[in-house]
Design goal:
The structure holds 3 protein chains of 3 kinds. By secondary structure, chain A is α+β, with helices and mostly antiparallel strands. Chain A has 2 domains: 111 residues, RNA polymerase, RBP11-like subunit (Gyrase A, domain 2); 114 residues, DNA-directed RNA polymerase, insert domain (RNA Polymerase Alpha Subunit, Chain A, domain 2). Helices cover 23% and strands 34% of the residues of chain A. Chain A contains 5 helices and 12 strands. Chain A is flat and about 75 Å long. By secondary structure, chain B is an alpha+beta fold. Chain B folds into 4 domains: 192 residues, Hypothetical Protein Ta0175, Chain: A, domain 2; 217 residues, DNA-directed RNA polymerase, subunit 2, domain 6 (Dna-directed Rna Polymerase Ii 140kd Polypeptide, Chain: B, Domain 6, Beta Barrel), CATH 2.40.270.10; 119 residues, RNA polymerase II, Rpb2 subunit, wall domain (OB fold (Dihydrolipoamide Acetyltransferase, E2P)), CATH 2.40.50; 111 residues, RNA polymerase alpha subunit dimerisation domain (DCoH-like). Helices cover 19% and strands 25% of the residues of chain B. Chain B contains 14 helices and 36 strands. In chain B, strands 1, 7, 8, 9, 10 and 11 form a 6-stranded mixed sheet that branches. A 6-stranded mixed beta barrel of chain B has the order 14-28-15-26-25-32. In chain B, helix 10 runs parallel beside helix 11. The longest helix of chain B has 16 residues. Chain B is extended. The two termini of chain B are 67 Å apart. In chain B, 38% of the residues are buried. Helices cover 51% and strands 0% of the residues of chain C. The radius of gyration of chain C is 15 Å and the shape is globular. The two termini of chain C are 22 Å apart. Classes of the chains: A alpha+beta, B alpha+beta, C mainly alpha. Chains in contact: A-B, A-C, B-C.
Chain lengths: 273, 668, 74
């Protein structure tokens, strides 16, 4: 497997991966979407809510705000040693919201939650949760737990995780009559007319739409877009709950764990024979 | 449609079925006239040279034109054309009411006729006046309107716009748009889309759809959920729905702005892909992304009001709001009253299910005699509490305590229920493409594009060819383009952004001009062979939701009269085993099943028949004997299993003085 | 009613970008440009802000007025 980091910043990652296949890449993608745990509020006890927004609507909004996740401290509730439905300090973090609009209308932001664990706070403090008219009040206690995307979308650690086959764009200058139609039609400007030939620029940007092939009047086509089925451009964008690297490594650990479990069980069955 | 309907009635908005074409809707700019005094009009016409009919001589009657007001002949005039143009000039100058319309009929072999109409109920439409090939509406007027210096009425007062009724329209020549004006034209349309009504003008690109589709959408737009009013928290509508996150459609039409649709939208822009998906979007079903729903797509709240009044009866008796106590007639059982507070009304935010009492109330007996028969002292009260409908549930949202018109205490309780889209909920695009959710798929199983986009909704390609709703394709591409460039697209009927422009803009923002994108299967991870058409389409959640319709019954109530199971969901009724179903079982020879459905599980009844006389006999409990009142000792009584409805028929025949006799024989 | 916390389609947090967006568009900036600056690249996220109507502002007016007239809820 060959790998190259194309882009990398705080919340996103773009990799070029060669020497693998779609099955593996898709397994990775699916695990990231559905099995990498992250923190989100899943229980809200509303003590008082005189806002215009109903309790369940409010709870839904609170659940959707991503929380900074500390995977090393917290356990998934089903794996926690406390075995309690209510949870303990190792599988639950409580956040408190207590706001009242006094004499003018206010917007309550995610940043106004007070967390018992200063590390478990909303990723962004600027998410409007509710608006309160004068004298309206919201008092509630929210319990955040680790969870998986397969149970509810609020636990997905990513806002985007996808890949594409690595494109291979070829121009057969022998056949090309330089009509320029393919250059014109390409949405990603991968093809470029330079002098008396069509050049390829940043072929990785190609979306494989093949509009250039469709418009080329030559037979055989002077321009050809194909893809390498063993080479991928993989991108991932975190919600901010976890770093992109952590999401990736966590996903690989989960995949690894599954394979190890498989191997162990299989070995056990073999021994029984 | 009739040619005079142009610009007056909407060509699309009419119901299907029996009322088709009979129920009509006004077009956007049309308005209804409200009568001007006929006498005043008469007083205008006579000084203008109209000779009253009784005074006109034979020559004038033969050569002059007949003048009618509201269809009745009032006189004659020798120079009709001059009269008509003078009348119209006066109207434009404001000397006579702008409500008056004049029609001048010149038919080859008939005498000229002038119809002056000033009655109520004429549908009139505004048009911009054109003189010598120049529109009277000039940019400076538009500027005055924009700055607020002028209002619409000023345009009418200054003879820039006038209202034309169906008859006067026969005399004018209207240009469709500014570019089409020639010296022969007398008027120009305000805009071509004003021929449509309110609902039809919400459809983007309707001119690309098959016409009935626009009619279907015009009917469906009224069922879409949105925020119907902003004071819904103070309102006590008996039923209402509020969509949590309504969005303005990203492909707009100009009338939306005028109608205020942009302030109170009723739908959401969804990423829609057109592919089949595991067969679960066959027959117009929709496949939804589970994650999208979990993030709030299509959520709504349903409100229902329950009310109870404490009525006063004759003799100073009245209803009371209270927690009913055991022993009262009709007491339902302790657990149904558990949510009531001491005043007999539920507590706020209580979570209720069907059958829970919201307002506890006891009433005096209906008839005073009712209790006299019994030995119990004092009036025994009846329980007339108001409970949550069976098959519904919700949280108590608000309580209103007030007085009714008669001065009685009136309590209204609002119960809310959050509706998250589920299997069977109905959604529709703006092109008459409706469907119910057929499957809700986890995001990881949905197809994805390289950019990470996963569709919210997957519709089946078979929904398209036979219906020819090309407008939906254009909306889809225009929606994608609009989101990419950050400015909403204009899909106004007839005058909109053309497909060539959309294609070019899509290309400029890095999308294929075809509107398609390369997708990968979320399940296998392989690239789809064909590129998938995706874009943003405005979907409306319609108020037909499964949770209001699901129904099943094992056993339950029966009707008193026929002893057959009740009908309808609200009464916990059975599902009708109808004639065609019956025919089917007969065809299969499934006699026992047929008997089971129609007799055993319905209104089975054991009837005693006297074989001697053939009439109904009965079992007398006191004498412990079977009795036939006709034959007395000669009676030969046998039990017969029949349908209760048949027994009822026999007795009803008897009441009509027809004597039905039953002849019994041993079963073969 | 109030800006959704996340993009329906992809789950990117967009709630925290609404006020910036609304403010800048009101000041006359090109909406497309503002969206680019806010880092919303996918059309699913962009439509969330472009098509949002903050209806809660109008709902809340009834409470503001209701309080003055002392008819509103406590």
């Amino acid at each position: 497997m060959k790998m190259e980091i194309l882009e990398r910043d705080e919340n996103s990652l773009r990799l070029r991966i060669g020497g693998t296949n779609a099955a593996f890449m898709n397994a990775l993608r699916r695990i990231i979407l559905s099995e990498v745990p992250s923190m989100a509020v899943d229980d809200v006890v509303i003590i008082e809510n005189s806002s215009t927004i109903q309790d369940e609507f409010l709870a839904h909004r609170i659940g959707l705000m991503p929380l900074k996740t500390d995977l090393d401290t917290y356990n998934l509730p089903e794996n926690c040693i406390c075995k309690s439905e209510f949870g303990c300090n190792l599988c639950r973090a409580s956040l408190i919201l207590d706001v009242e609009a006094e004499d003018h209308t206010i917007t309550v932001y995610s940043g106004e939650f007070k967390s018992e664990n200063p590390a478990t706070i909303p990723v962004s403090g600027k998410i409007p949760i509710v608006k309160l008219a004068p004298e309206q009040k919201v008092r509630l206690e929210a319990y955040a737990r680790l969870g998986k995307g397969e149970d509810h979308a609020r636990w997905q650690p990513v806002s985007m995780c996808a890949y594409k086959f690595r494109p291979i764009v070829k121009v057969d200058s022998k056949h090309c009559d330089l009509c320029g139609a393919c250059v014109e039609i390409c949405p990603k400007n991968v093809l470029l007319k330079a002098g008396n030939k069509v050049e390829i620029k940043n072929s990785d940007n190609c979306t494989l739409c093949q509009d250039c092939m469709d418009i080329c009047k030559k037979t055989p086509k002077a321009v050809e877009v194909v893809w390498d089925e063993n080479s991928f451009i993989f991108s991932l964008e975190s919600t901010g709950a976890l770093s992109p690297e952590r999401i990736l490594s966590e996903a690989l650990n989960i995949l690894d764990g599954k394979l190890k479990d498989f191997l162990e069980q299989f070995a056990g069955k073999e021994n029984e024979k | 449609m009739h040619p005079t309907h142009w610009g007056r009635l909407c060509p699309n908005e009419t119901p299907e079925g029996s009322n088709c074409g009979l129920v009509k809707n006004l077009a956007l700019s049309a308005c209804i006239s409200v009568a001007v005094n006929v006498e005043k009009v008469r007083q205008v016409l006579y000084p203008m040279g109209v000779t009253p009919a009784p005074d006109s001589n034979r020559e004038l009657r033969l050569s002059g034109a007949k003048i009618f007001i509201n269809g009745s002949l009032i006189g004659h005039h020798p120079y009709p054309s001059e009269l008509v143009s003078e009348l119209r000039d006066r109207r434009r100058r404001g000397e006579i009411s702008s409500e008056i319309n004049v029609a001048h009929f010149k038919t080859m072999d008939r005498r000229e006729e002038i119809y002056v109409n000033c009655d109520e109920g004429r549908v009139r439409r505004p048009l911009i006046i054109v003189e010598k090939g120049v529109s009277m509406l000039q940019p400076e007027h538009v500027e005055k309107i924009r700055s607020g210096e002028w209002s619409w009425e000023d345009l009418v007062k200054n003879a820039i716009i006038e209202y034309i009724d169906a008859e006067e329209e026969e005399n004018i020549y209207v240009a469709l748009n500014l570019d089409a004006i020639s010296p022969k034209h007398t008027h120009v349309e305000l805009s071509s889309y004003t021929i449509l009504g309110i609902c039809a003008s919400l459809i983007p690109y309707p001119e690309h759809n098959q016409s009935p589709r626009n009619s279907y959408e015009a009917a469906m737009a009224k069922q879409a959920l949105g925020v119907y009013t902003t004071n819904f928290i103070y309102r006590v509508d008996s039923r209402s729905h509020v969509l949590h996150y309504p969005q303005i459609s990203i492909v707009k039409t100009k009338p939306m702005e005028i109608l205020g649709y942009n302030h109170r939208p009723s739908g959401q822009n969804c990423v829609v892909a057109i592919i089949s998906f595991e067969g679960y979007n066959m027959e117009d079903a929709l496949v939804f992304n589970k994650a999208s729903i979990e993030r709030g797509l299509g959520r709504s709240t349903f409100f229902r009001i329950y009310e109870a009044e404490s009525r006063q009866y004759l003799g100073g008796l009245k209803d009371r709001f209270i927690i009913p106590e055991a022993g009262i007639r009709g007491f339902r059982g302790e657990q149904y009253y558990r949510l009531l507070e001491s005043d007999g009304i539920v507590s706020l935010e209580a979570s209720t299910v069907g059958g829970d009492v919201l307002i506890g109330r006891i009433s005096p007996p209906r008839f005073l005699e009712e209790y006299k028969e019994f030995e119990v002292k004092g009036p025994s009260m009846r329980d007339t509490s108001v409970d949550v409908r069976q098959s519904e549930a919700g949280i108590v949202d608000d309580i209103f305590i007030t007085e009714s018109n008669e001065g009685n205490k009136l309590v209204k309780v609002r119960v809310r229920d959050q509706r998250i889209p589920e299997l069977g909920d109905k959604f529709a695009s703006r092109h008459g493409q409706k469907g119910v959710i057929g499957m809700i798929v986890p995001q990881e199983d949905m197809p994805f594009a390289e950019s990470g986009i996963v569709p919210d909704i997957i519709v089946n390609p078979h929904a398209i060819p036979s219906r020819m709703t090309i407008g939906q394709f254009l909306e889809s591409m225009a929606g994608k383009m609009a989101a990419a460039r950050g400015r909403s697209a204009d899909g106004t009927p007839f005058v909109n952004e053309k497909s060539s422009e959309i294609k070019q803009t899509l290309k400029d923002y890095g999308f294929s001009h075809t509107g398609r994108e390369v997708f990968y299967s979320g399940i296998t991870g392989e690239k789809f062979v064909a590129d998938i058409f995706v874009g943003i389409v405005y979907y409306q959640k319609l108020h037909h939701m499964v949770s209001d319709k699901v129904h099943a019954r094992a056993r339950g109530q029966v009707q008193m009269l026929t002893r057959q199971p009740t009908e309808g969901r609200a009464r916990g009724g059975g599902l009708r085993f109808g004639e065609m179903e019956r025919d089917c079982l007969i065809g299969h020879g499934a006699a026992m099943l047929l008997r089971d459905r129609l007799l055993e599980e319905s209104d089975k009844y054991l009837l005693y028949v006297c074989e001697n006389c053939g009439y109904i006999a009965y079992f007398d409990i006191k004498r412990r004997a079977y009795v036939c009142r006709i034959c007395e000792d000669d009676a030969q009584i046998s039990p017969v299993v029949i349908s209760y409805a048949f027994k009822l028929l026999l007795q009803e025949l008897m009441s009509l003085c027809v004597a039905p006799k039953l002849k019994l024989t041993e079963r073969a | 009613m109030i800006i959704p916390v996340r993009c329906f389609t992809c789950g990117k947090v967009i709630g925290d970008k609404w006020e910036d967006f609304a403010q800048r568009v009101k000041e006359g900036d090109d909406a497309g440009k503002v969206l680019d600056d806010l880092g919303l690249t996918r059309y699913c996220c962009r439509r969330m802000l472009l098509s949002h109507v903050e209806i809660i502002d109008e709902i809340i007016k009834f409470y503001e007025v209701g309080r003055k007239q002392q008819i509103g809820p406590p």
